[in-house]
Structures are given as structure tokens and as C-alpha cells.
């Protein structure tokens, strides 16, 4: 309990909370002063720097998309995106969530250094695609680990039903699923790009990477343009000209701190045992040596780094499970899902 008592003292201390909220307030106020006026329509800006798409990062990005969709003052959204892709299911989730946002308001993507595979799939849910001349775009395809030709035989102490209870399918079946996912990915691109696409399906599924210039020529993207071009296009698609800008990343971060404040507020005064128990359920066991929690404990002298570490725990790993030993005494290891929409590059 001492670890959480330390966390409580740091997070609720006035010399930690006051500077933090003041800093966030100044940042939000400055953006409002520069870009916005009451009653103005807004364009939301979501900045996604180089990000591998996992369940955690997809949750964070999805939360930003939800904020932009639910805020009625935001009339259009610009997403600045750099990603090599990542997990298949997480990439598909972001595509579906981006398409859901597009159904309610225009969404314009600016592809920066690299938008490949699952990152490119996500961009298919948007209204308009800008690239830089040197952007790297495409890589429509799937990466998976197939079972070996001769799968390992489990020990005699393991009893299982069905020939594929342990591996899920034969090697041929896994290869077939990869081909199925490849076809579905390609069909998503063909359906979303429509008549703008000037590349055959056979060429598309070769999973090549194209420069921004070639991506526009082949219809994989719409235009060469900058962040400012994307903002102007978003305003045009939304039918607004006198608009302000909203930093969605900042607004979601403020929401997270407010949620933490609501969680920790009952700990001030009284024993707060019920709230501490609830907080412990959200955080990993400190004895497991979680690096983010350790960073919080080591940096709690200045408070801000500790809050950032705890925010990472709360926001990105609320539902995480240790896959190394999820079921004590279970005789076999549990493998990761092994389908990825991911560009891995040509390095050794």
C-alpha cells in the first residue's frame, strides 16, 4: 500500500497539481486565443507521429477520433499521420473508426514520412489524402507467422481434442488465411479509392512502397500538399471559411488528467480504502517491475514526470494482461495473434 500512498501524496499535492493544471490551462488558452473565438466553427487537428499500431496505440488514437466526432463545434478533422502499420485487428479497428468519423464530418489526412500497410489502411477511412513528394506510401499486404511443416509434439501430460485444437489450423490453412486477408485489404483500397485508382489489383497486391509523387500518379493518394493545404481542404469540404483550430491531442490529454483527478480526489481525507482498491485493479502489480510505474516512483519528486507515467498506465494499458504467465499452472504457452498489416523495411 505504501506505493499507492506515495502516488496519492504526489498526485494530490498542490505543488504538483497546481503547476500541471496551470501549464495545461496556459497551453489551451494560448491555442484558443490564437486560433479560436467563441461560436466559431473548429477544425480538429490530430497529430500521430511515428506509431506502430497496437491495441494500446489504437485505443489512444480511437479516443482522439471519438473526441473529434462527439464535439459538435468541430466541423472537420485533419490527421497528421506517420505509421508503418501494425497488428491486423488494431489496424482494421482504426479504419472502421476513421470511416465512422468521416460519415459525420470531413476527414483529411496528411501523410508524412511513412504511411504503409495498416497505417495506409487507416487512411482509407478518410475523405482526402495529401502526401509529401518524398512520403512513402502503400505496402498493401499481410505478414504472418505460419506453423512449421512438422509442428512440435506436446508432452504426454497434455490432453487435447481435435487435430488442430492447439495450432488452430494446418499450415495450408494459415497460408490461405493470409491470402484471404490480402484480398480483403486490396478490396478495401479498391472500394475506397474507386475511379481515382489507376493501378491494377495484381499490381496493388504486390505490396510495393511508392513515393508520394507516384502515389498521386497512381491514385493511391489525392494531392501533394502541406499541413496548411490539408486544413484549407478540410474547411472547404466542411463548407466553412472562418474557423479556428483545436489541438485534439491536448484536449484528450486534459480529459485524462481530469479523470485521474476524479479518481484520486476521494483519497484526500479519510482512509480512502475503497478508492485505493479500485485504483489497484487498474494498475499492474508493482512487484512485477512495470517500467512506467517505476518511472513514476523514481520521478515523483518533481511530480510532472510521475503524472505522465501514471497517465500512460491508465490510458494505454487499462485492459492489459501479462501474456508470459496469464494462467498459473497452465501447461502450455499462449501465442500472440500473428497477422500484421506492417511494413518491416529492408534492413537486416
Terminal CA distance: 46 Å
Mean of pLDDT: 78
Catalogue the unreliable spans. 1-8, 10-18, 33-37, 272-284, 299-307, 316-321
Strand content: 15-25%
Helical percent range?
40-55%
Order of helices and strands: HHEEHEEHEHEEEHHEHEHEHHHHE
Shape: globular
Count every beta strand, where a strand is a DSSP E run of 2 or more residues.
12
Instruction: Write down the Rg.
Output: 23 Å
Structural class: alpha/beta
Oligomeric state, counting identical vs distinct chains: single chain
Tell me the number of helical segments per DSSP (H or I, 4 or more residues long): 13
Largest β-sheet summary: 8 strands, mixed
Describe the structure.
There is one protein chain. This protein is an alpha/beta fold and 348 residues long. 47% of the residues lie in helices and 16% in strands. The protein is built from 13 helices and 12 strands. The chain has helices at residues 2-12, 14-35, 55-70, 88-102, 118-123, 171-193, 201-204, 212-217, 227-238, 248-264, 273-282, 291-299, 304-316, and strands at residues 42-48, 52-53, 74-83, 85-87, 107-116, 128-131, 136-138, 143-144, 209-211, 223-224, 244-247, 339-342. The strands form 2 sheets. Strands 1, 3, 5, 6, 7, 9, 10 and 11 form an 8-stranded mixed beta sheet that branches. Strands 2-4-12-8 form a 4-stranded mixed beta sheet. Strand 5 (107-116), helix 5 (118-123) and strand 6 form a beta-alpha-beta unit. The two termini are 46 Å apart. Residues 1-8, 10-18, 33-37, 272-284, 299-307 and 316-321 have low confidence and may be disordered.
Amino acid at each position: 500500500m505504501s506505493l499507492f500512498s506515495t502516488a496519492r501524496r504526489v498526485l494530490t499535492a498542490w505543488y504538483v497539481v497546481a503547476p500541471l493544471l496551470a501549464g495545461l490551462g496556459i497551453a489551451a488558452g494560448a491555442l484558443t486565443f490564437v486560433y479560436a473565438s467563441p461560436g466559431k466553427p473548429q477544425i480538429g487537428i490530430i497529430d500521430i507521429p511515428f506509431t506502430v499500431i497496437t491495441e494500446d496505440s489504437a485505443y489512444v488514437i480511437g479516443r482522439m477520433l471519438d473526441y473529434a466526432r462527439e464535439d459538435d463545434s468541430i466541423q472537420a478533422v485533419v490527421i497528421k499521420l506517420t505509421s508503418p502499420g501494425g497488428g491486423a485487428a488494431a489496424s482494421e479497428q482504426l479504419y472502421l473508426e476513421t470511416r465512422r468519423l468521416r460519415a459525420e464530418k470531413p476527414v483529411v489526412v496528411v501523410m508524412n514520412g511513412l504511411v504503409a500497410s495498416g497505417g495506409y489502411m487507416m487512411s482509407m477511412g478518410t475523405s482526402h489524402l495529401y502526401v509529401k513528394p518524398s512520403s512513402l506510401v502503400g505496402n498493401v499486404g499481410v505478414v504472418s507467422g505460419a506453423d512449421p511443416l512438422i509442428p512440435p509434439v506436446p508432452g504426454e501430460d497434455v490432453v487435447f481434442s481435435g487435430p488442430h485444437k492447439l495450432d488452430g489450423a494446418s499450415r495450408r490453412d494459415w497460408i490461405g488465411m493470409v491470402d484471404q486477408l490480402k484480398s480483403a485489404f486490396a478490396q478495401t483500397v479498391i472500394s475506397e479509392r474507386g475511379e481515382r485508382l489507376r493501378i491494377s489489383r495484381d499490381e496493388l497486391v504486390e505490396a510495393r512502397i511508392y513515393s508520394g509523387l507516384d502515389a498521386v500518379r497512381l491514385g493511391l493518394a489525392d494531392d501533394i500538399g502541406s499541413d496548411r493545404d490539408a486544413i484549407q481542404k478540410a474547411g472547404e469540404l466542411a463548407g466553412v471559411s472562418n474557423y479556428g483550430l483545436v489541438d485534439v491531442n491536448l484536449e484528450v490529454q486534459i480529459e485524462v488528467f481530469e479523470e485521474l483527478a476524479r479518481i484520486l480526489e476521494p483519497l484526500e481525507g479519510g482512509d480512502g480504502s475503497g478508492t485505493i482498491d479500485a485504483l489497484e485493479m487498474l494498475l499492474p502489480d508493482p512487484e512485477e517491475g512495470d517500467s512506467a510505474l517505476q518511472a513514476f516512483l523514481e520521478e515523483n519528486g518533481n511530480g510532472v514526470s510521475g503524472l505522465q507515467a501514471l497517465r500512460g498506465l491508465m490510458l494505454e494499458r487499462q485492459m492489459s494482461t501479462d501474456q508470459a504467465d496469464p494462467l498459473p499452472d497452465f501447461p502450455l504457452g499462449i501465442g500472440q495473434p500473428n497477422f500484421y498489416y506492417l511494413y518491416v523495411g529492408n534492413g537486416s
